[in-house]
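Hi V.,

You were right to ask for the full record rather than a summary. Here it is.
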Amino acid sequence: MKHEILGVIPARGGSKGIPHKNIRDMQGKPLIAHTIEKAKQSRYIDRLIVSTDDPKIADVARFYGAEVPFLRPAELASDSSRAIDAIKHALITMEDLDHKRYEYIVYLEPTSPNRSAEDIDDAVDLFLHSDADSLASVVEATQYHPILMKTIENGYLKPIYKDEPEGMPRQEYAPKAYMRNGAVYIFRRENVLQRILWGQTILPYVMPIERSACIDDMNDWYLAEIWMQKLNQR
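Predicted structure:
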């Protein structure tokens, strides 16, 4: 059965951690270009757009083959804006422009440049064969296992999750933990229109660490570049 799928790449202009992050050069091309190129290879995405408030980002996105049919309103691109409102705006706007109904939204953040086109399509295929409300790509948490997380009470470390077993190697921490890596999200139209992203059931798409870089600061940037170099050598 054919499903109409809208691909949305969010790219606001007001990045604070890394100024102009989305169009900063990474391995010879703007950061956003890596996501555009992989999304354009997807066999599932029917329409791919970039939602941005920044004309410079819009020009770069168009140069690399993405469509930018509108500029996102400023009130949907501030530090305090919620992703759901930008996604809902993109969905409603594109349905009005295209005179069609998009059943699913594949949401691809530019800050995950090492995902592959196969990751996108495998995630969509997994989601289409489920009845889940949403999908989020994840990576296994090793050094970030919740058992390692502490709080400070009265000057002493206290567990947030549960006591860390004395001398236990990290490989034996249980239960196995996963964390969102920001690479692929899939949402249902009916939920988005109600300002719901996740719903009650979230399907995981597990990815390896080398394709799970998620850039928030320059340390993340350098790690993403290292992994990209290694992936490109394969």
